[in-house]
Hints:
Elements: H1 2-14, E1 25-35, E2 59-61, E3 67-71, H2 78-93, E4 100-101, H3 125-141, H4 143-146, E5 151-156, H5 161-169, H6 175-193, H7 195-201, E6 206-208, H8 216-219, E7 224-227, E8 230-232, H9 261-273, H10 277-282, E9 285-286, E10 289-290, E11 308-311, H11 320-327, E12 331-337, H12 349-364, H13 372-388, E13 395-398, E14 401-404, H14 405-424, H15 431-444, H16 446-449, H17 451-461, H18 466-482, H19 489-512, H20 517-525
Antiparallel strand pairs: 1-3, 1-4, 1-5, 2-3, 5-12, 6-8, 7-8, 9-10, 11-12, 13-14
Helix pairs in contact: 1-14, 6-12, 7-13, 9-11, 12-14, 12-15, 14-15
Amino acid sequence: MRKLIDSRLEQLARAGQLHLLRKGLKGLEKESLRITTAGEIARTPHPKALGSALTHPAITTDYSEALIELITPPFEDSADTLAAMEDLHRFVHANIGDELLLATSMPCRIEGDESIPIACYGNSNIGRMKHVYRRGLGYRYGRAMQAIAGVHFNYSVSEELWPVLQAMAADRRSLAEFVADRYFGMVRNIQRFGWLILYLFGSSPALSKSFLAGRETPLASSFTEFDPTTWHRPYATSLRMSDIGYRNDNQASLDISFNRLEDYVRDLSHAISTPYAPYQAIGVEVDGEYRQLNANILQIENEYYSTVRPKQITRSGEMPTLALKKRGVRYLELRSVDLNCYHPAGISLEQLRFLEIFMLLSLLAASPPMSTEEKKTSANNMLATACCGRTPGMTLIRDNTAVDLRAWAKELCESMAPIAAALDGDSTGGGFSAALEHQYVAIANPEQCLPSARMLREMRGNHESFAEFAQRLSLQHAESLRSPPSLPAEKAEAMRRMAETSLAEQESVEAGDSLAFADYLKHYFAQT
């Protein structure tokens, strides 16, 4: 792998185009539960001062009314991306009273499904659709799983770089075909190597026992009791991405191809239009109330849980698969990053630098088509790393052979070194190479340096339950974000106006509806 990457970087350098690697766009989506000062999930509505969750471009909600989602625009420099996310955090903390944003990915102090309010988006057809979709998720998988939070790293290759790469490859297809093919090559490599993200940045080795309430058997047998209210796995990295987190056994039979755009769209469309008996038993419209959008394997594309998604910006009322089919891939959404509970914005600049290098590794490395068997192996590597990645002598499977996890991690980082150097150029002060070097140290000293180990070590040292640990850090972050230097007055005013505009836009959407909800859904799904 290293030789191929060196060769491709040398070609770019000879063409005088190496700088285009630095021009990729980076954006963030970050979820956080609003909680009370007692550490319980907030049951208050989405604060009006934050605007409309339906129409606000930067502040919305995910599954729950309490699960705030903050979205930055894309920037060439991740420092700008992080600054935008930090500004959003300051604005939110100034407008949620004494509530806090939970610092951890895993929720705590859950008192049954009813303690997790489903997000509401008003009375418009699109608002109702978003709510009913979430209600369906609750019926299908339970609400607790939907209260898990994380960071999504959005990355797009520079538009200027694509023609250069196509010329280097002597590829005679249309540029659109080439771009789609290379993005799906990135997707496959992210699946092959994505366990590394869980190992290095996983920050959810423990969880509150309340998360498994009603599901204790047989799940609890796979955990060790940390204290009377906390389960953990001693060598876990990311329980969020494990068998009790963002994984759906109901989807185990799905075989979504990542080899070609056409195949991906075909397979997802099939899942969205294929009835599934257990979901038919739930019912769609029961006693005049919608329980789910439909009784198919997937209600919509977003129900398919994957560590990475190829994305295209959708137009009003447009299905994501149709947007991909019409206009190709615009960017990739990496979804496997836990909240960094030690950073007020949930992620650090060092992490963002590393993720950028990782995305370029996935672009520049060879990426042959992926068989169903290789997809299963990659998924098993992810699960093994999530559940017990820090186990001494841990091995994963590569090319049907067991390999030492830490040796493979070091090998990947060595392949990333020339990419980091290219990104550093003469202008970043070595920030990319420094971010990579930090991970070399973490791989060599996992129990001292990995955040999953640090969390358990602090909980033991402070005699804290998971809930107490999470509450302590959440309060620290709230205090730091509410303390000087505060959000500059002009930014705060711009955000206030944006919130007001979004409320007016929601009213306009609601006033413009003319179809009955059943007809709206019929028209929407007719796109398949």
